[in-house]
Amino acid sequence: MFAIIALGRAEEPVDTAQIIIRKQIMAFLNDDAAAAYSFASPEIQGKFRNEDLFFEMVKRTYQPVYRPGNFAFGRNKVVGDQVIQEVLITGPDGKDWTAIYQLVKQPDGTYRINGVRILQSAPGPAI
């Protein structure tokens, strides 16, 4: 099972997505830019040519994801080779946020985070 988790290839795409999101959030909490960057898709890595630029963008733009007070997985859906996962977050300011993660299956079968949309609100009617 450890090898499956390490490679991001669990049988269930939603389980895999949640493992990856959890690992990236833990990397942010540990100020591990290299690990956090490693979970980003090639498209995202192409926009931020190195881990430091990526990490600084997350600090500035996604503070609740960078330093969550706590978080829990909400609803999700699988659409083709994508997993859409809702994450309910209490930010460092105590406010509630909803982060919608998009993970995309890569040619090697792993999943990577391809985008996050963050809203200051409780969960909406649809993801």
Number of discrete domains: 1
Shape: globular
Counting DSSP E segments of at least 2 residues, the number of strands comes to 4
User: What string, H for helix and E for strand, traces the elements in order?
Assistant: HHHHHHEEEE
**CATH topology call:** Nuclear Transport Factor 2, Chain: A
Helix content: 25-40%
Named at the architecture level, the CATH assignment is Roll
* CATH level 1 class label: Alpha Beta
Count helical runs: 6
- Secondary-structure-based class equals alpha+beta
Distance between the termini: 30 Å
Main β sheet profile: 4 strands, antiparallel
What value does the average pLDDT take? Answer: 89
Pfam families: DUF4864
InterPro entries: DUF4864
Protein name: DUF4864 domain-containing protein
